[in-house]
Amino acid sequence: MFSRAYKTVVTVPPLLWVTVFLLVPYLLMFCYSFWSVSPAQAIVHSWNLENYKELLQKTVYWQTLLRSMWIAARVMVFSLLLGYPLAYFLSFYAGRRKDLLYQMVIIPLWVSYLVRAYAWKTILGSDGVLNTLLQYVHLTRHPLDFLLYSPFAVVLTLTHIYTPFTFLPIYAALEHIPRNLVEASHDLGANPVQTFWKVIFPLSIPGVVAGATFAFVLSLGDFLAPLLLGGPSGIMISNIVVSLFGAAYNWPLGAAISLGMLVIVVSLLFLSERLEKKWSFS
Amino acid sequence: MELLVNSSTSNTPCSRWLLVHALAVFSFLYLPIAVLILYSFNGQGVGGFPPHHLTFDWYRILFADGPIWDSVLNSVQVAFAAMAISLMLGIPAALALDRAQFPGKALFRRLVLLPLILPGIITGLSLLMLFNVMGTKLSLMTIMLGHGTALISVATTEVFAGLQKLDRAQEEASLDLGANYWQTFWRITVPNLKLPIIGAALLIFTLSMDEIAVSFFLIGRDNTLPLEIWGRLRRGITPEINAVSTIIFVFSLVTIVIWYRLRVRAEGGVDIGGELVEDSSTSTLSS
Amino acid sequence: MASPIPPTIAVSASAQSAAKPALLSIQHVAKSFGRNAVLRNVSLEIAEGEFLTILGESGSGKTTLLRIVAGFETATSGELWMGPERLDHQPPYRRRVNTVFQSYALFPHLTVEENVGYGLRVAKRPAAEIAQRVAEALDKVKMTAHAKAKPSKISGGQQQRVALARALVNRPRLLLLDEPLSALDANLRRQMQVELKSLQREVGIAFVFVTHDQEEAMVMSDRIALLRSGELEQVATPREIYSRPATAYVAQFIGHTNLLKGEVQGGIVRCAALAWPAPLPEGPVLLSLRPEHVRLAGPGASGTGVVRIRGRVMHQAFHGATELIRVECADRLLLVVRTASGGVVQSEVELEFSAADAVQVRESPERI
To answer: Which of A10, B61, C77, C297 is within CB 3.0–4.6 Å of B95 for a Cys-Cys bond?
Structure first.
């Protein structure tokens, strides 16, 4: 129904833009990762594998990557544990209040990421709200210092930030389950618990996969929460990249790490896409 | 709290447990926001329990703070520019994905949507390298380009979802009645997509105002508001930040309410940005 | 057919099924959603092994009634009894009642076989028994070949059979079917009507079948319960509901009819220009006269108890084996006549019908 000219007009500008500002930069990142820095701090455009060699040899990169993945995995699990029952409650038990409660989950998403991370800092700090509260009610005598500047603070903050992200696709998946399937299950003799595990949960798996992917991928690449709340033990892989692009001034090495992250993230996205397809039946 | 629960299902132990859980999650989600607002009025600054000495001092200091307002102005400029760029490219991109076939379409779709799910650091760094190679000086301009590019994904998802609901027969009728493509686009397609476009615009504006990971790498001499806040946070905690955050929160809330009203009036539906997260789940990456 | 019409025509449900033991007894059930009354005071008994159809237009409350029996809705008032057991206090999963849903509600993530075995698995039957009963059920509905397929891979008609097998494999005491054929095309639908009926005979389980299609109801049912705006209009066998409709609504809903408004005075019915003797009580009367009971009169005199009238042909519609002719008689009386198809009739015709074929019906008061 649409003419060739119409299709050209709508296709070409975004295609060009995306090529210049997304595809080319990713390719540049790829190129950079094979370049190096001269002692005079200039980028040498000669192709070599030095950056990758260094990454493979120095354990600090691997340790940090593993720590980042461990933090991201914890954020993912906690977001699911908080988000899934909440989504289930809203979808199946909230009745007329459903829409209002749904909006209440969304609203924190609209509050600045930075501001929420900062709010946790004011809560967790040694003279922060939580510690002074604990002392005020005489539960503790001295401030608990593991609260802030620790992986714990990073996991807590990122869980807070990504729980709504995890909730949304799960809620959407639950809402898309035809209610007559639940009725059919009851009709065939399954009690509510059996119905949940045999019908509702399997049909919500695509939402769970999408939500888990969000939480994991976005936490993995985070560098602000660790800077703000993580302390030395909460450093994540992106922080290394940031310092390589900043003070340490080694863009090629930073590009190599970023590229590694990109590869991990994109493979995870493909994997979750596969899983979602496998478990969607519409 | 009984009110929250549907009468027909309220009496099972399971639903009680779920209710308690839901209340706990909501408290968790709102605790930092509550603390933030509360302490923006606390005379003794951040931290310390219980808060006492109600004061508006921090707001007074904030309003006299020149650099903060400069950064707000910068952020607003960036947000409008990002909105223009991503709508001008995102709407055609959605149309292309909906109705054109071309080689590399699947890759194109993935590329457009990728910044939505990708950690901001990767988008920011890759653009930094591009500008470096092109010899472009970092400034607000580069941030605008960065936000605009990353947020095409938002415009595309929202408009694409709108196109899926649009009845193709309306456009066919318009063409049948003698309107050309251009007229049909402005008289039929755009009015039908009014809501997704407004929604996308509001979302893009808010997301851009709040964006920090991409801006972090593309910043020149002028700060955006989040970067200004970031800079001050690195130096130490000040309740002035609570005050500005509270203002941003109220501002966002007003935006949400406006959007909610618009949407309820237009279609009786209620969904703010939900479309986005729902549609941008990884499955939309597939062709 | 020529027997005198009894003064009360409505046959109550309980009177009909009194001979057989009642399996399910629906007593004074009412249901309202907010201020909207969907069912009011519905009482109905379903006998062992019978095929009962709940017939009604959309919005008549038929699906709500079915959902109350299944346990998906709670009645606002009234009781359900299955033998000595009060049914309405039990959750759906404890009722020995199974449902075939309108859109089948097959579980999309389970294969045909797993769908059919679902009820047995949640009841924790031994694996060997499940396998055997599932195989039997699939065989009964001729779906063995598709046992491993996912529901999305089979046709609508096949999904319908699977839904049936999934319900029947649990050996319910009562099977509820919510417009199960409405999604099928006309040919498949007719075929399934016959199959469903013979399957019901074979398994001997009582079926409660909900439909808005009066033809379907006539073909399949032992009894029809006609629901209108949340109240039962008549419960009777298809033959009886057709030949002795209780109300004007029933007469019009099931097949075509001519409704004649008249007055009885001294054993004589007067209706427009017509008059004939009938043993009816004095006063205003409403009569239903089926089009096929009106004939084009031949030459010569008619027998006793036959009413004759002349009229002008207004319209003639061909319906295949028969035609419907609309005739305007004296005093603006309109009669629809069904005749065997046979070419053009003259513009002026002489009609006749047996007085006994005009059966008295009650007025159907408006209900909201």
So the answer is: A10
